[in-house]
């Protein structure tokens, strides 16, 4: 994927279908390449209410780290979990959460709300586990 390439798809959640697009993006805040996603309901393209999801492309060529997950108007629709699972499918890499101690950049944090609403439900479903030494959650490998 190149910087100007955009791919689109449909994300199916327990609350319906949503449109998404993603693209390779150099994140000026974090000074890393990321995959940036925009997710929205309905036809057309994203607007100011679109959910944002970003994955940091790690240098190890194995992991992608969730660094931004802002649901805006779509909180409670199952989008956060669905887009993490979709990212694993799209990229075939291990998806990990942000960390509060093993940080890739200064402002990185795994917020309690993200743990409660996204990562712990993934653990409860057997889809992720907590890696205590690295202080992050890891989506389990594709079966």
Number of strands: 8
Strand order of the largest sheet: 1-2-3-4-5-6
- Poorly predicted runs of 5 or more residues: none
Radius of gyration using CA atoms only: 14 Å
Shape: globular
The profile of the biggest β sheet is: 6 strands, mixed
The helix content is 10-25%
- Quote the average pLDDT: 90
Count of separate structural domains:
1
Quote the distance from N terminus to C terminus: 25 Å
| Structure annotation, total helices | 2
Question: What structural class do you assign from the helix and strand content?
Answer: alpha+beta
Order of helices and strands: EEEEEHEHEE
Beta content comes to 35-45%
What's the short story on this structure?
This protein is an alpha+beta fold. The protein has helices spanning 79-91, 112-124; strands at 6-13, 16-27, 32-40, 51-57, 63-70, 94-96, 128-131, 136-139.
What does this protein look like?
This protein has 143 residues and is α+β, with helices and mostly antiparallel strands. It has helices at 79-91, 112-124, and strands spanning 6-13, 16-27, 32-40, 51-57, 63-70, 94-96, 128-131, 136-139. The two termini are 25 Å apart. The mean pLDDT is 90.
């Amino acid at each position: 994927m190149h910087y100007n390439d955009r791919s689109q798809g449909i994300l199916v959640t327990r609350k319906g279908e949503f449109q998404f697009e993603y693209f390779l993006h150099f994140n000026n805040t974090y000074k890393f390449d990321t995959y940036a996603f925009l997710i929205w309901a309905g036809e057309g393209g994203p607007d100011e209410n679109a959910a944002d999801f970003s994955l940091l492309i790690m240098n190890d060529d194995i992991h992608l780290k969730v660094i931004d997950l802002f649901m805006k108007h779509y909180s409670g629709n199952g989008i956060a979990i669905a887009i993490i699972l979709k990212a694993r499918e799209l990229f075939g890499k291990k998806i990990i959460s942000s960390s509060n101690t093993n940080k890739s950049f200064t402002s990185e944090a795994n917020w309690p709300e993200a743990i409660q609403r996204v990562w712990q439900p993934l653990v409860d479903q057997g889809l992720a586990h907590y890696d205590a030494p690295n202080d992050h959650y890891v989506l389990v490998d594709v079966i």
